[in-house]
Design a protein that fits this description.
It holds the Pfam family ADH_zinc_N_2. It comes from Secundilactobacillus mixtipabuli. The protein is an alpha/beta fold and about 300 residues long. About 30% of the residues lie in helices and about 30% in strands. The protein folds into two domains: about 160 residues, Medium-chain alcohol dehydrogenases, catalytic domain (Quinone Oxidoreductase, Chain A, domain 1); about 120 residues, NAD(P)-binding Rossmann-like Domain (Rossmann fold). Helix 3 crosses helix 4.
Length: about 300
């Protein structure tokens, strides 16, 4: 089987292709033939600079990249009870989804999905959806009629956060480029601020929650638009607790919740057409395809998800 790995950290030219034997499994493991994997900030950042402090799981070179996947179960160990050959699945397999096949424990982050769903967009669901769910639902605790400001609404996490907040009944404000106005409105945004030409501090006040997905400067400025007792949730930058105290705001750096309950809620919304994944572009699983996907991701702007598709 084909894998794409890193020989060192740097430009896309550090990526290389290698063929390995098909994986063998233990009694509680299964083999998944991958259908798709998403391109994410963490993959590009690790490829360029190695592991940031926020990444808990580190590997030695050479290692692969990729975190999320969709695919079909092709083999199960004799003690596996939750899955069978032919099941369509999605999951997380950190730093090992640039591979035609993966081995994963049945109790890892992997879930069955209905077979009628297209596996290609589903390969880009979890890395964006899990932190968005944590920010909006688990930690943000958004309720109907609350006001939510989402910075970077056109990106992968932002597009999910808009939909989760809207499903919860909130009034959703988001910052985006002017070119993305119609797109974020289609996701449910009630108000769109063109951050390149408008100052959100002048246009927004008394929000219950800020979901911060961009730079530190924007985060620091966001405290002033949150009502006293409100919240700021960020999976991208650790919030300044002195500012949080100054403005009487609960501010947290969050990671995506990976519990089975959260995953089931997200899959249920998607299966019932209450959640969509916008696929910006699809790339073939080849060395040049992966290089191009990374290059395009770095150039931006990124609307929704870029997906690497494996051969059928």
């Amino acid at each position: 089987m084909k894998k794409i790995l890193l020989r060192e950290y740097g430009s896309v030219d550090v990526l290389f292709e290698r063929y390995e034997a098909l994986p063998t499994i233990m009694e509680n493991q299964l083999v998944v033939k991958l259908a798709a994997t998403g391109v994410n900030d963490v993959d590009v950042a690790i490829r360029k600079n190695g592991f940031p402090a926020t990444v808990l799981s580190k590997k030695k070179l050479p290692h692969s990249l990729g975190h999320e996947f969709s695919g079909i179960v092709t083999q199960v160990g004799k003690n596996v009870t939750k899955f069978k050959v032919g099941d369509h699945v999605i999951g997380l397999n950190p730093l090992d989804t640039y591979s035609e096949n993966i081995v994963i424990d049945e109790n890892a982050i992997i879930d069955k999905v209905p077979k009628e769903l297209d596996l290609i967009p589903l390969g880009g669901l979890l890395v964006a959806a899990l932190p968005a769910w944590s920010a909006v639902i688990l930690e943000g605790k958004v309720k109907a009629n609350q006001r939510v400001l989402i910075h970077g609404g056109a990106g992968g996490v932002g597009s999910m956060a808009i939909q989760f907040a809207k499903n919860a009944g909130a009034y959703v404000i988001t910052t985006a480029r002017a070119r993305d106005k119609e797109y974020v409105e289609s996701l449910g945004a009630d108000e769109v601020i063109d951050y390149q030409n408008e100052d959100f501090e002048e246009l927004v006040k008394d929000v219950d929650l800020v979901v911060h997905l961009v730079d530190k400067n924007t985060q620091d400025k966001s405290f002033s638009v949150i009502k006293s007792g409100g919240k700021l949730m960020s999976p991208s930058v650790v919030p300044d607790q002195e500012k949080a105290e100054q403005y009487n705001v609960e501010a947290k750096f969050i990671r995506g919740d990976t519990s089975s309950e959260t995953r089931a809620s997200i899959i249920d919304l998607y299966s019932n057409n209450k959640l969509s994944i916008h696929v910006d572009k699809i790339y073939p699983f080849s060395l040049e395809g992966v290089k191009t996907a990374h290059t395009d991701f770095e150039k931006g702007p990124n609307r929704g998800k870029k997906i690497i598709k494996f051969d059928e």
